[in-house]
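Before we proceed, please read the two lines closing this message. Let me know whether the structure tokens fit the sequence:

…
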Amino acid sequence: VQLQASGGGLVQAGGSLRLSCVASGRPFGRYVMAWFRETPGKDREFVSGVNPDGTTTNHADSVKGRFTISRDNAKNTMYLQMNNLKLEDTAVYYCAMRRSTGNAITTLTSYYDSWGQGTQVTVSS
């Protein structure tokens, strides 16, 4: 499985970015997909997840109301629309595919076995 994340960059606080993750090597539409983020000295944390058909999403409390996760199974692509970005959103963002098929969105990294290379998001004041 290969996951290719893109869309990161430098943005001012209050601005927006959209991350994309293109998957190959596994039937994309059968797996839960998620975004995690990581900052130096901290564990990788769950940001948002979406079930295989895109009808159910889950967001961390810190991003609820600001971030939206979605997917286009015809394009094997997942997105993360990030609005009203805050300084504390600065991190490397990783996309991930869950290890097994199913509908449950889990927030634990151990349930995901395929990871993208990460894309840096930097929010400035």
